[in-house]
Design a protein that fits this description.
The complex is a heterodimer of chains A (593) and B (329). Chain A has 593 residues and is α/β, with parallel strands linked by helices. Chain A is 35% helix and 23% strand. In chain A, the strands form four sheets. In chain A, strands 6-7-8-3-9-10-12-11 form an eight-stranded mixed sheet, with helices on both faces. In chain A, strands 18-19-20-15-21-22 form a six-stranded mixed sheet, with helices on both faces. Chain A has a four-stranded antiparallel sheet with strand order 2-1-4-5, with helices on one face. The two termini of chain A are 29 Å apart. In chain B, 76% of the residues lie in helices and 0% in strands. In chain B, α2 packs antiparallel against α13 (292-320) and α8 packs across α11. Chain B is globular. The chains are: A alpha/beta (593), B mainly alpha (329). Chains A and B meet through α2 and α4 of A and α10, α11 and α14 of B. The structure holds iron/sulfur cluster. The site of iron/sulfur cluster has 13 residues of chain A, from loops.
Chain lengths: 593, 329
C-alpha cells in the first residue's frame, strides 16, 4: 500500500458544476518524490492543496478519494482535518516571505505547530533539532527574529522546518524555490531530498520548472488543463514522453548546452468552462486526428507505473526524441564600433554603492547577455543605460556621444534609440489603455505622422511580434501573459530603436511561452539589426540568444566573453558555481545514468 | 504611517522627540490662528463683547483686562507667555475667576466621559469588525454592516435624543434624561447619569472603527500566512486572534485615533444634549457669553488633544508592526 493514494479526484468551481481538475489519480510511496508539473492554470496547486483537504475560496472537492495510509481524508470532520494538517500531511508554501506571519517571531511560529499537534515532550529540544535539520542557526537569538529579518533562503528553510516538525507522512511542496537564487535553490532542494529520504516521507513537488523537477523527482506527473496527461518515471518522461504536450514541454526547456533549438508551444491552454469535447490539447497538437476532437482520450498503461492519456501515444513514443531540431549556428554579426560603451561606471542606491568599475560594450547587431543573481546589480546597470537610474558616475556613451544620467536630460532621439522592456508584462502595460493606444504612444512622442500612417505602423509592429491586428482595440487584461509581453516588445520596437534592453522579460512567463518569446527576440534582433542587452538570471537561456555574456556578482562583472567560451570553459569561480547550481535537464539525466 | 516610516532610522526615542517637537510647532501655529481669529482680527473685541451701549470707561477697563492695548505682536507675545506659564487669564463671565479654575473640574468630567466611551467602543468595534470579517457575506456581516451604515449616517444629537426618549422619558424610565453632576461631586458618584451620554458617543464612533477593522481583517484573512496557519493545523480561534488580528489592527489604529480626536471635539454636542458639565458645554456657554479667554483656552486645548492622539497613534502603529519597530533600533 502506498502512503498516499489519490483516486479520481474532481474539484469544481463552487456552485457551477464546472470542473477545475478531474480524474486525478496517482500514488506516492514512502520516501518517493512525485513532481507535479504544469503551466499556470493547469490546476496543479489545486491538486496539491487537496491533499490537505483544503481548497481556496470558490473551489470545492466534489468527488474522489485522497487516502493517507489507506484512510480517506476527505471524509474527516473539521477537527480531524485540523489534526491532519501540519501533523500527518504538511505544506511548504510558494512564497515564504508572504506565508510567514510578519507579526510573530520565528520561534513562536515554529513552536505553535508542535503545540497544536502535541508533538513530543520537550519543545525546546525538538526546535533545535528542526533548525539543525534544515541547516539554520540554532541559537536562541535566531528564534527571536521576525520573518523580515531573514533572507529569502532562510525564510524558506523555516518553512521546511515547520513542514517537517511533526514528522509528517506526506508533504506537499508548492513551488518552494520560485524567487530564490539558483545557489540558494540548489541548497534548499538538496535539503528537501535529504529529509524526504531520511524520514520516508511521500512528497508531492508542485512546480512549473521542469529542470528543477528533473533534478529532484523520482517520478513525474504532467498536468494540462486540469488533467494528468502523463505520469511515469522521471527519466522515461524526459527522454521519451508518450504524450505530445509533455514532449513539447520538454523541448521548451532551455538547455545550458544550447544543443537543440528552443521551441515554444503556440496557443494557450483552455480555461475551466471553455474546454473542448475530445482531447483538451487537440487545438495545439501536431498529432491531432479526428478521433481526438471527438473523444476524450482514456487513461492507458504504457508500462509498469506509467500511464498516458493520448489516442496516439504509440506513434508518439515510436518517434525517437532525438529528432529534435538542432540549434542553428549562431554568427556574430557585430561590427567593430560600439553602439553603447561603458567605461568605469560606478552607481549607488542612495548612499549605498551597488556597481563598481563596470566596463561593457554592445555593438550594433550584437546581443550581450547580462547574467547574475538577484542583487548582483544587473538590473541597476540596465537602468543606468536606459536613463531610469541617475545616480552613477563614469562614462556611458551611445555611438561615441556621452549619455547624460536620467532620461529626461537626454534628447528625443537618444530616448528613441534606447528602448526598455520590463520584467512583468502584468504591470508594465497601462490597464486603462487599449493595445493600440499603448503602442501608439511612442509613435506620437517620437514621430510626427499622420493618423493613417500611425495605424499602419501599429499593425506592422503587432505583426512583427506575431499578434494579429484584431488586438488593437483590446485591453491588456484580455490578453495572456505571453501576449502582453509581445505587446510590450512591440511598443519598444515601434520607435525603431538602436538598442533594446530586455530586463528578465521571460521570468514571469510559463516555459512554453518563454521559449517563444526568446525566439522572437532573437529573430527580431537579427532582422532589425538591433543591439540587444538581455538581462537574465537564467543561464540556460542565453545560449539561444546571445553572442557575448557578462557575468555579474556583487556589483562587478566577474567574467566577460563569448557565450560558448564562458559556458564551456568558465574561468571565474563564481561562474563555475553558478553553472553547477543551475538546475538543468541534462545534468539531472546525466546523474541518473 | 508615512511620517512614521520617514523617521524610523533614528531610534524610537528620537522619533518620539521629533514628533513632540513637530506637535509643539503645530500648536504654535494653531495659537497664531486662534489669536488672530479671536483677538487681532475683530476691530474691537471689547466692544464686540460689551455691545454698542457700553460706556467708554467700561470699554477701557475691559481692554486693559484683556490686554488689548499694546501692538498686535506685543499682545500675542503677552498672550502666549500666559499660556506657556499656565496663566490663561480670567473668565469674563464666571465672576472673574481664573480660566484654569473654571475649566479644571469640567475638564476632568469630559476626560472621564471620553475615556469611558473609548474604552467601551474600541474593544466593541474591534470585536464587531473581526466577527463580521470572519463570516464575510454571512447574515451577521450583512446585518451589522447595515446597522453601522445607518448609525454612521445619523448625527449624534439625533442618536442622543432618541436614547433619551427611549430610556429616559417616554418609553422607559430607567435612566436619567439629563446628566447634571453637582460641581462638588465627581462623575464616579453618578455613573448611572453617564450611561446615556457614553452610549451616544459609542454609537457615534464605533461604526467607523468597526468598518475599518472589518476591511482590514478581510484583507488579512485572505493572506498567505493565514492560509498557512490553517494548513499547519492551527485551531480556527488561534488563527483568528493570534495570526490575523495583530496584523489587522495596525491600519485600524490611525482610524481609532482619529475617532478619539473626534470624540474630544464632538463631545460638545453630546454634553449639550444631556446638560453634562464638561468642556463641551463650557465652550457653548463661553461662545454665547463672548467669554474670550475661555474660548481661546479651549481651542488650544482641543488642538492639543488632537496632536497628542496623533502622536500616540503613530507610536502605537510602530509598536504593533515588528518591521517598523525593528528598523528603529
Ligand atoms: S489525443 Fe490526439 S490531440 Fe490529444 S494529445 Fe494525443 S494526439 Fe494530440
Amino acid at each position: 500500500m502506498s502512503v498516499l493514494e489519490v483516486e479520481n479526484l474532481r474539484i469544481e468551481i463552487e456552485g457551477t458544476g464546472i470542473d477545475i481538475v478531474d480524474e486525478i489519480s496517482f500514488h506516492i510511496e514512502a520516501g518517493e518524490v512525485l513532481g507535479l508539473v504544469g503551466e499556470s492554470g493547469s490546476g496543479k496547486t489545486t491538486v496539491g492543496l487537496s491533499l490537505l483537504g483544503h481548497q481556496r475560496r470558490g473551489a470545492k472537492i466534489v468527488a474522489g478519494q485522497v487516502r493517507v495510509d489507506g484512510k480517506d481524508i476527505l471524509e474527516r470532520s473539521p477537527a480531524q482535518l485540523r489534526a491532519l494538517r501540519g501533523g500527518t500531511v504538511s505544506y511548504v508554501p510558494q512564497d515564504p516571505s508572504a506565508a510567514l506571519n510578519p507579526a510573530l517571531r520565528i520561534g513562536r511560529q515554529l513552536e505553535e505547530v508542535l503545540a497544536a499537534h502535541r508533538f513530543g515532550s520537550s519543545h525546546e529540544e525538538r526546535l533545535r533539532e528542526m533548525l539543525e535539520e534544515v541547516l539554520l542557526p540554532t541559537e536562541r537569538s535566531f528564534l527571536r527574529r521576525y520573518p523580515h529579518q531573514l533572507s529569502g533562503g532562510q525564510q524558506q528553510r523555516v518553512g521546511l522546518a515547520m513542514a517537517f516538525a511533526c514528522r509528517p507522512r506526506v508533504i506537499v511542496l508548492d513551488e518552494p524555490t520560485t524567487g530564490l537564487d539558483v545557489t540558494t535553490q540548489a541548497h534548499v532542494l538538496a535539503t528537501v531530498r535529504m529529509l524526504c529520504r531520511a524520514h520516508g516521507v511521500a512528497a508531492l513537488y508542485v512546480s512549473h520548472d521542469l529542470a528543477v523537477v528533473a533534478a529532484l523527482a523520482d517520478r513525474v506527473a504532467v498536468m494540462y488543463a486540469g488533467r494528468i496527461v502523463e505520469i511515469g518515471r522521471e527519466r522515461d518522461l524526459f527522454l521519451a514522453s508518450a504524450h505530445p504536450y509533455a514532449r513539447r514541454l520538454v523541448e521548451a526547456i532551455p538547455e545550458i548546452s544550447g544543443e537543440h533549438e528552443l521551441v515554444g508551444i503556440p496557443g494557450t491552454a483552455p480555461r475551466p468552462g471553455h474546454r473542448p469535447t475530445g482531447c483538451f490539447f487537440a487545438p495545439r497538437c501536431d498529432y491531432a486526428v479526428d478521433i481526438c476532437r471527438e473523444q476524450f482520450p482514456p487513461r492507458e498503461r504504457v508500462a509498469e507505473r506509467r500511464e498516458v492519456r493520448c489516442h496516439r501515444w504509440q506513434e508518439v513514443l515510436a518517434e525517437a526524441v532525438h529528432d529534435r531540431p538542432l540549434a542553428a549556428v549562431r554568427t556574430n554579426g557585430a561590427s567593430a564600433d560600439a553602439l553603447i560603451s561603458i567605461r568605469n561606471l560606478q552607481a549607488a542606491h542612495g548612499e549605498r554603492p551597488v556597481l563598481f568599475d563596470i566596463d561593457l560594450d554592445v555593438a550594433p547587431r550584437q546581443c550581450v547577455a547580462l547574467v547574475g543573481e538577484s542583487g548582483s546589480g544587473k538590473t541597476t546597470l540596465a537602468r543606468c543605460i536606459a536613463g531610469l537610474h541617475r545616480n552613477f558616475t563614469g562614462e556611458l556613451a551611445l555611438r561615441g556621444i556621452p549619455l547624460r544620467p536620467g532620461a529626461r536630460n537626454r534628447s528625443r532621439d537618444t530616448r528613441r534609440d534606447i528602448q526598455y522592456v520590463f520584467q512583468s508584462p502584468y504591470s508594465s502595460l497601462n490597464p486603462r489603455k487599449t493595445i493600440g493606444q499603448i503602442i501608439g504612444q511612442p509613435l506620437r512622442l517620437f514621430f510626427d505622422l499622420p493618423r493613417r500612417d500611425q495605424h499602419a505602423r501599429i499593425v506592422h509592429a503587432l505583426e512583427r511580434v506575431q499578434l494579429t491586428s484584431s488586438v488593437v482595440d483590446r485591453y491588456p487584461h484580455e490578453l495572456s501573459g505571453g501576449e502582453r509581453q509581445r505587446v510590450a516588445i512591440a511598443r519598444a520596437l515601434v520607435s525603431e530603436p538602436a538598442l533594446l534592453v530586455c530586463d528578465e522579460v521571460t521570468s514571469a512567463l510559463d516555459v512554453s511561452v518563454q521559449a517563444a518569446i526568446v525566439d522572437l527576440i532573437a529573430e527580431l534582433q537579427r532582422e532589425m539589426e538591433l543591439g540587444l542587452l538581455f538581462v537574465t538570471h537564467n543561464l540556460a537561456l542565453i545560449r539561444t540568444i546571445a553572442q557575448e555574456v557578462a557575468v555579474m556578482s556583487a556589483g562587478r562583472i566577474v567574467e566577460h566573453g563569448p557565450v560558448d567560451r564562458v559556458l564551456d570553459q568558465p574561468e571565474a569561480e563564481y561562474t563555475k558555481r553558478l553553472l553547477a547550481d543551475t538546475p538543468s535537464l541534462e545534468s539531472a539525466l546525466a546523474i541518473a545514468e | 504611517m508615512s511620517t512614521a516610516i520617514r523617521f524610523v532610522r533614528r531610534g524610537i526615542s528620537g522619533f518620539v522627540l521629533r514628533r513632540v517637537l513637530l506637535g509643539l510647532l503645530t500648536l504654535l501655529l494653531v495659537s497664531v490662528i486662534v489669536f488672530a481669529a479671536t483677538q487681532a482680527l475683530p476691530s474691537d473685541p471689547a466692544r464686540a463683547i460689551l455691545g454698542r451701549t457700553a460706556t467708554p470707561e467700561s470699554l477701557a477697563a475691559l481692554r486693559k483686562q484683556l490686554n488689548l492695548t499694546g501692538s498686535i505682536p506685543g499682545q500675542y507675545a503677552h498672550w502666549l507667555k500666559g499660556f506657556v506659564t499656565g496663566d490663561f487669564g480670567n473668565s469674563l463671565a464666571a465672576r472673574g475667576e481664573p480660566v484654569t479654575q473654571v475649566l479644571g473640574k469640567r475638564l476632568e468630567n469630559s476626560a472621564f466621559l471620553v475615556l469611558i466611551a473609548g474604552e467601551v467602543s474600541i474593544p466593541l468595534s474591534i470585536l464587531l469588525g473581526v466577527l463580521a470579517a470572519r463570516r464575510r457575506d454571512g447574515p451577521f456581516d450583512h446585518t451589522s454592516s447595515l446597522l453601522m451604515l445607518a448609525l454612521a449616517a445619523l448625527p449624534e444629537f439625533v442618536v442622543g435624543i432618541a436614547l433619551v426618549v427611549l430610556f429616559g422619558t417616554t418609553v422607559f424610565h430607567w435612566l436619567p434624561a439629563v446628566s447634571l453632576i453637582p460641581p462638588e461631586d465627581t462623575p464616579f458618584q453618578h455613573l448611572k447619569a453617564l450611561i446615556l451620554p457614553v452610549a451616544t458617543l459609542v454609537l457615534a464612533v464605533s461604526p467607523y472603527i468597526a468598518r475599518i477593522m472589518r476591511a482590514s481583517m478581510v484583507e488579512v484573512l485572505e493572506s498567505d500566512f493565514v492560509e498557512m496557519a490553517r494548513l499547519k493545523g492551527m485551531p480556527e480561534r488561534h488563527v483568528l486572534w493570534r495570526h490575523a488580528v495583530p496584523n489587522a489592527v495596525a491600519p485600524a489604529i490611525q482610524v481609532i485615533a482619529l475617532n478619539l480626536a473626534y470624540l474630544a471635539g464632538g463631545i460638545v454636542v453630546v454634553e449639550f444634549v444631556f446638560g453634562y458639565p464638561g468642556i463641551g458645554s463650557a465652550l457653548v456657554d463661553a461662545v454665547a457669553n463672548r467669554d474670550l479667554p475661555v474660548v481661546q483656552a479651549l481651542a488650544i486645548l482641543i488642538a492639543g488633544v488632537y496632536v497628542a492622539l496623533n502622536l500616540m497613534a503613530d507610536v502605537a502603529t510602530i509598536l504593533v508592526s515588528p518591521r517598523l519597530r525593528t528598523s528603529l533600533r
